[in-house]
Amino acid sequence: MKYIKQTLLLLLAITTIIACSEDDPFTGISVTAPSNLQMNIQPDADQVGLVNIIPTAEGASYFKLDFGDGSTEDRIDLGQVATHQYAEGTFTITGTAFNVMEDSIQATQTLTVAFDPPSDLILNISVDEVNTNVITVTPSATNAMSYDIFFGDIVDEVPTVIVEGSSANHSYTEAGDFEVRVIARSGSITTIEATETVSITLPAVQLGFPIDFESDEIDYGLISFGNADLSIIDNPDMNGNASNKVVKFFKANGAEVWAGGLVELPNPIDLSNENNITMDVWSPKSGATVMIKIENSSDPNIFVEVMATTTTSNAWENLTFDFSSADQASDYSKVVVFMDFGIPGDDSDYYFDNITLGEGNGGGGGGEDDIISMPIDFEANINYVFENFGNATTDVLDNPDMSGENVSAKVGNLNKASGSEVWAGSFIDLTGSLDVSAGKTITMKTWSPKAGIQILLKVENKSDPNIFLEIAATNTLADAWETLSFDFSALDATQDYGRIVVFFDFGNEGDDSNFYFDDITQNN
Length: 524
Description:
With 524 residues, the protein is mostly beta strands. It folds into 4 domains: 14-113, Immunoglobulin-like (Sandwich); 119-200, Immunoglobulins (Immunoglobulin-like), CATH 2.60.40.10; 223-358, Galactose-binding domain-like (Jelly Rolls, Sandwich); 386-523, Sandwich (Jelly Rolls). 0% of the residues lie in helices and 46% in strands. The protein has strands spanning 14-19, 35-43, 50-58, 62-66, 72-77, 82-85, 89-98, 104-113, 119-122, 125-127, 134-137, 140-142, 146-150, 160-163, 168-171, 176-185, 192-200, 223-225, 228-234, 245-251, 260-264, 276-283, 289-295, 303-309, 315-322, 334-338, 348-358, 386-389, 392-398, 410-416, 425-429, 441-448, 454-460, 468-474, 480-487, 499-503, 513-523.
């Protein structure tokens, strides 16, 4: 009789990522090419050889997998799991990520199957020399594929799970001795665990809000990326901001549109009572998009981004970023700053200072104090009330395509349901009336799934629907933002117009298409 001992060993080796599209999403392309393709491979603990593969990529719509053993799966939608049964051996798994435009990238990972339990677990714990309440755990073990890490400072703690070869960071809020426990896992039912006690002391001066860059005792640890360069310097303009020290943000010529910098706090941001972040900004240009992003220290997929726009040039101003939408159950400890977001660098110098956490409205919107006026950009934390007709529906949501002419965070979405009227649309009432003297040309950014449709913009008296003027325009792009102009020079300046009405694909029945619009603005 012959006995066969089956053992499982999964070794992941990320090899080459091959981009199949070189399109630049900020030069008119409607959808960004996929990037950062990864395949999260998880063995089944109860059935040897059974592997779950979760492909992820930024900008991807779906994936294709070649399992490396002669079998494939042609479509795995974003967020779905591919399950495959392997025999013993070494296999090269090839993943391909596609966006909605069929742009794609590939990545390969090597999988070795030999059913052995993990052994020889080493915890490898290090304590940060500056932020002495922060530890990094980089476990290693023979045959291990993943690790469950318990940091020992939380009752009924849910473990932090990492894969072989990676690390986990953790910030303690109190000093003391804590037992760190690590469980090493492979595809085997058998696991191995080890513990180690760490002694934590709190830093004499901890980095936290407000961040004013004035202390000589704090290592602010500024990190730059995308060919931006951040440094702490003497304040070059103390008018409007009397601080001695500020951060200089240099965006070099040709720097990435997403160039920026970050500072990492030793403890998560407490958003339970205060959820507005304000920042003093000095910009050489007005109308520049400034974005603050808060991010989890170990998982870059956990983040919130909020944008603001500068209103002056060559002077300090205070910008407010509303983070009331942040998930209170998540931890955010990285504060990331972007200047002139969405625009390549041009050797400009920006400055920022006094990043402060303050009271917000807890995410509540609406109320009798809401003021709707031109321009309408949907960024204010107010209740934008749309009235719908003809079986259209409009609401405000996150921008589904932050590229091209519109990188705003919030936009209007009009859904023209299947079979809806040819004249289906929606309107919103201004708090006051349209100031005709401010300009008789109205521009609006639009995004449509089809080109060549008629988009109608109408201004109307709120009390008398017979007092109106409507102007049509035809879009030229599909699946991309473009700015349309509507000539209202025929407006009767003696009349009162306080209602803005929008129609998409005017003259055609609805087919359940979604249209997006933003930045309704008066111009001379």
